[in-house]
Every structure is written in structure tokens, then in C-alpha cells.
Amino acid sequence: MIAQLTIPPMTPQEYFEWEEKQPIKYEYINGKVYAMTGGCKIFMADAKVGVSDNGPFHYPDVMVTCDSRDRTARQVVYHPCLIVEVLSPSTAYFDQGKKFRNYRRMDTLKEYILIESETMNVDCYRLNEKGKWELTTYSLEEPTINQTDLQVHFTTVDFHFPISSIYEDVVFPKDNPENS
Fold first, then answer.
1. Where are the beta strands (DSSP E) in 30-77?
2. pLDDT (tens digit, 9 = 90+) per residue, 136-178?
3. 82-87 and 111-116: which strand pairing?
4. Structural domains for the chain
5. Distance of CA 110 to the CA centre of its chain
6. Which of 66, 11, 48, 51 is nearest to 33 (CA)?
7. Among 14, 20, 50, 137, whose CB has the most other CB atoms within 10 angstroms?
8. Exposed (0-12), middle (13-18) or buried (19+): which is 176, by Cβ within 10 Å?
9. What pTM was computed for the model?
10. Element (H or E) spanning 161, and its range?
11. What is the phi-psi region of residue 122: left when phi exceeds 0, alpha when psi lies from -120 to 50, beta otherwise?
């Protein structure tokens, strides 16, 4: 969502210099500047998510926040709307259980994504309008329309992409019968 600012038109160079000093992001189109309302900030395994001020604290693989309270966050994010975890055999049980229970305590979290590492499967847990978590599974083991690549949709940030893009350059274990 964008809103045009009422400032005089500027050159691209003026825009770059001006935007560096602004607390939020702005787009530049034909000399005009537009504020990015509801802009999101993405963290990849370099910041902790805090369930509360007293913890617990976890390192998700990816998290997105669109909350202004996290605008200056560097080490701990408290208000994510989307969290992504890549499952491995050693972490799957914890990520699907206790960690997800912890994450559900955050009132800003709307989507929790679990990406399997040994099969092409993505589980998207989404909070519905009744406050209940619903599961949507994307898996290439299921038939797809016209045999095209299955499109995954992260609804919180309205991001669509083919499931194969997650698994690009991934070599699956040969002893897994699902990958034969």
C-alpha cells in the first residue's frame, strides 16, 4: 500500500540522498515519492524472535515483520507476521511442536511456514478470521493442474512462487522412496 507525499518532484539522485535519511521506505516513480505504508522488514537467521520480553527467544530461518514497533529492531523482533522454519530430521519435532506453541502466543503472527528438507513439501499454517490455525499443504507429490509447477502462496505478504524455487539446487537423499 503506498501513499504519495506532497513534496516537489525530485531527480533520482535527490531521491536517493533524501530517502537515506527517512525512517521508512519510499518508492520513486516519475519524480514523485510514495511512502510505503505497512512496509515489511525481512530477517534471515540473523535476528532472534522474542515471544515476550522474558522469552523464549528463537532463531527462525526467516521472519517478516510489518509492525512499526520492529522498525529499528536489530537483534530481537517481537512482532513478526510471518515465520519460516526449514525442517531437518533433528529439528522437525521441536519446530512443529513446542516452538510453534511458543510462536502462537504472539498476537501479530498470522502465518507459520514449515519447509521440509528431504521432500518437496511446504506446510502453511494460517490464522483464520475466527482465531484458529488452518493448514494448507503444498506438495509436488500431489497432482498439479496441467502438470505445471505448484504455486505456493504466503498470504500474509501476498507472495506467490513455484515450489521448485525453494528446492533449487537441493539434492534429496536417494534412500527416500518418495523421491524415486
1. 32-36, 41-43, 48-50, 57-58, 62-65, 76-77
2. 999 987 555 555 678 999 998 888 899 988 888 888 877 655 5
3. parallel
4. 2-36 (no CATH), 41-179 (3.90.1570.10)
5. 10
6. 11
7. 50
8. exposed
9. 0.73
10. strand 159-162
11. beta
